[in-house]
Amino acid sequence: MKLTRRDFAQLLAMSGLNLVSSGARASDQTSGSKRSYNPRRIENVYALLSEQEAKLLAEKVGVAHVSGQSLTLLLAGNSQVLQVGESFKGWLLLAILDDQTAVLEYRVRHRGILVYLNESGGEVLRLDEYLGTIREIKPRQINAEPGVALDREGQFHVGPDRASQYVLGSSEDPCFENVAALGSEYIGWTFVGRDGGGPKASIYLDEAGNTRQRKDDPAWAPDRNGPLLDMADHLPFSFPEGYSYTPGYSKRTLLGGHLPVAHIGVWNPKFKRGYEMMALQPEQDGAPPIARIRVLLGASEKEPPGSVVSAPDEEGMRFSEEFVGGTRKEFFNALRSTAIYWEKYFEAGVRIDIPDQWLLQAAKAGLVISRCSYHGLEPTYQVGEGAYTVVPERSHALFPVASYEFVWAHQLWGQIASADKFLAHYLTKYILPNGDFAYNSQDQVEGPLNVGFFLSNSARSFRYGRDVQALEERLPTLRRMTEFVAERISYSRRTFDIEDRRYGLIWGSPEADLTAPNHDTPDANPYYFQNAACVWRGLRDHADALSEAAKAQPSATLAQEAEYYEGLASKLRQDLARSLAATLQVSSTRVRKANITPFHPNDTDRDPTELSSYENHRFMQDWFLSDFGVPSFDQGHLHHRELAGQQICGLHTDGNAPRTSNFMEHGTLAVRIRQEDYRPFLLTLYALVCFAADSGNRYAPEDAYIPGGHPEQQSRYGWSAVVNSTLQPTMGLRWLLCYEDSNSPVCHLQKAAPKHWFENGLKIGVKNCPTRFGMVTWQTEALSNGRWRVSGFVAPKFSAELVVHIHRPNGQRCRTTTSGKILGSAVQLSVEELQLKPAFDFIVS
Fold it and tell me: Residues of the signal sequence (predicted)?
């Protein structure tokens, strides 16, 4: 018998638990509350442009008579002959390459532009720089109300999350400007690498621009006698103290916002000196990294040996410039190749244009940096080189959690072909004969719940790409994996009576750190609910994909398998639901009164303010990601976090050793996007990129020590940047823009887009976005602060309703639409409408 939601509600009622639904809680948060204050803000110096500066950066320039080391620059009807190192009206000639392509640069206060030009075709390439004038560099400002700022506490205490309440209670939606204002930035290291290069083809640069590899690390023989790059070797000897690093006076960015090319600026406020450097890794195997170093010189200061000094610019500033590891031409040739490579990569997938380009670049950087950390198709957990990765790859490189999120992120961004290659390689090489995962060379055992995630990855890959052959090639391995968990389910059914709360659940580890091969036995761990929930999700997704494949390419075998897995999933859900209801029924009064959700059948009595690190950062995160479809349980876990005093985005500001971890916070994003109130999702997303990562270079550690964290604080594992943390903005932005309801045929567009993205003149555009219902492309243009035009199209036979969310700047609901049906602050387009007319174009007011 299939357990329906109504049946499950009756079981909850029998338990006596009074859990509210997500919709009710969201309504409580929003109805009747009048937000009248604006939160304090700071400027985002990674995106800040005045209207005049934007015009200057967008100005078109041309070149003529390009030859050797000179050219004629054409600008606004004027022309000027320039040599390399000279400038005209702010445009600096950086190089003339052998194919007569000129490279020019223009800077404003906080930003800049690099342009490649030639005589015949004009502009070849344009790259945004997020480093402007080095004199503007300073620590990120804190601008918080008293009692609201994120301060590192001396010891843990249970208390309200005042920072979150302050932002969510205001008249504004969360954004960089009001979230980052709450506390100090995380200052991380800047990554340099190339796609598929792995640790040996990547370096990290500290906040002063020096390489960070360890002298005794066997993977980094070039660093045994010192760093690959030491800025002290390239600064003027006449005044070295003027260039010393002053804490906080560093701006760490990636060129283009997401390329694996470091661009760092350092300023000394006392001596008014500074420098900047770019570093990249050429594509050729074994090639050393190349750096461009540019130093601000005093009026009579001597340049470093071997450098080229530019003529004074419009402000009378002189810079010395040198290239380390290669020549000027080699650097800019390699930069062009790198930029064009990644431009083509993103053009082949989902194409996004949103008002917050800084957030978009963070999402792109997640994919880029993670791919550069892979060694070909070989997986990794560590980003670049660090505590979790040695060469050859083993240990945490095989962490299933990192691999499934890596593949998932590729799928969400339309990189289906790449996702299939990585998924196939992992399944072929790292799934053991018995269907379990090879992990840490089996020095550790991960949770069986990961089988569910890989089944969902496979299903998503087919439903996005419709490649029946690729699905069939995966099936032998997927069968071994399902048999592995099916046997564990069978064990609990054979061993326990049906009224035993363990009946039908899945035994095994909930997390690798909590078990080992010699303890991987049925009685070693409680029967955690998230193991069963994640496997249920995977089985159900797998069954749906097989059913669709059997229809697309008629196959009795696939149809029979689909039926088998649907039955297995349905029975598992019934047993899990029964166990949850029974556990709640026998829970203590204080647990029932607190309305918190148990983690396993024996989790019946606890202090509701107690929440261990693993419960917070792993067990409930896996539950959130399974999307079991009963909002009350999600709310029970979220409420548990609140009672336990977890701080902004579920992390902590505890002065003691970190007790939580942020590497699974994509689980929080997954549960928040399902809620009616979208603002907590935005708060989580912006908090992750403002505090649990470096806002400029996207360095994202496993355990962010917030606020004001820095690598080398606490455990070297905790501050190591990892794939999971790095990919959170990648997945979060996709869900913000396009979220597929896991349990019904509904596709949400712009579900969590902040209301300031809907202001007059702004646009939200997404092209070629895959969903399991078919492809969707759309654009929302604000015609005014009260009218919006939404246009786009879906694939033929699109099989879901579209819900297009419009968050009006005044906070009011939508009133009229020229197509579809108004649903509060959204417009609903039915399946029938879309299948009759796949293209849509309507006005909302």
Answer: 1-26
Give CA–CA dist 807/827, Å, rounded. Answer: 11
Q: Which pLDDT value is given to residue 635?
A: 95
**Centroid of chain to Cα 688:** 9
Strand 746-749 to strand 801-805: parallel, antiparallel, or no bridges (unpaired)?
parallel
Pairing between β-strand 776-782 and β-strand 763-769 as defined by DSSP bridges: antiparallel
- Return d(Cα 182, Cα 164) in angstroms, integer: 10
Read off the DSSP letter of residue 310.
Answer: P
Give the chain's length: 845
Sign of CA dihedral 530, 534, 535, 536: positive
pTM of the model: 0.94
Give the residue among 806, 802, 804 at the shortest CA–CA distance from 754: 806
Residue 156 amino acid letter? F
In three state form, how does the secondary structure of 662-673 look? CCCCHHHHHHHC
> What's the CA gap between 794 and 798, in Å, rounded?
6
Which of 194, 353, 407, 327 minimizes the C-alpha distance to 753?
353
Alpha-carbon distance of 804 to 826, in angstroms, equals 5
What is each CA distance from 364 to 12, 296, 422, in whole angstroms?
43, 32, 18
What is the Cα–Cα distance from 148 to 156, expressed in whole angstroms? 17
Give the separation between CA 448 and CA 528, rounded to whole angstroms.
Answer: 10
Given the DSSP bridges, would you call strands 70-75 and 61-67 parallel, antiparallel or unpaired?
A: antiparallel
Express each pLDDT in 525-552 by its tens digit: 999 999 999 999 999 999 999 999 999 9
Q: Class assignment of domain 746-844?
A: mainly beta
CA atoms within 13 A on the CB side of 783: 10
DSSP codes joined into one string, 13-63: HHHT--PPPHHHHHHHHHTT-----PPP----TTT---HHHHHHHH--EEE
Count the neighbouring beta carbons within 10 Å of the beta carbon of residue 659.
17
pLDDT band for position 199 (cuts 50, 70, 90): confident
Cis amide leading into 392 (omega within 30): yes
pLDDT score recorded for residue 664: 95
Q: Is the dihedral of CA 726, 730, 736, 740 positive or negative?
A: negative
β-sheet with 318-324: strand ranges across? 250-254, 262-268, 273-280, 290-297, 318-324, 308-309
Residues 153/646, Cβ–Cβ less than 8 Å: no
Domain ranges of the chain: 1-34+445-594, 51-129, 190-343, 746-844
Q: Closest Cα partner for 262 from 444, 130, 388, 136?
A: 130
Q: Report residue 445 as tokens.
A: 């055992």
What is the average pLDDT across 809-835? 96
Q: What is the rounded CA–CA span in Å between residue 282 and residue 192?
A: 10
User: What's the pLDDT score for residue 654?
Assistant: 66
Reported as a pLDDT band with limits 50, 70 and 90, residue 655 is low
Closest CA relative to residue 376, chosen from 180, 583, 200, 170: 200
Cα separation, 514 vs 312, whole angstroms: 62
What are the CA-CA distances from residue 104 to residues 96, 513, 697 (Å)? 9, 52, 23
CA dihedral (503, 505, 511, 514) in degrees, to 10, reads 20
Return all residues near 138 (Cβ < 8 A) that are at least 6 apart: 248, 249, 267, 269
Residue 596 pLDDT level (bands cut at 50, 70, 90):
very high
Identity of the residue numbered 3: L
Query: What gap in Å lies between CA 809 and CA 784, rounded to an integer?
Result: 10
Position 649 scores a pLDDT of 66
The CA distances from residue 209 to 190, 262, 266, 295, 719, in Å, are 8, 9, 8, 12, 19
pLDDT averaged over every residue in the chain? 90
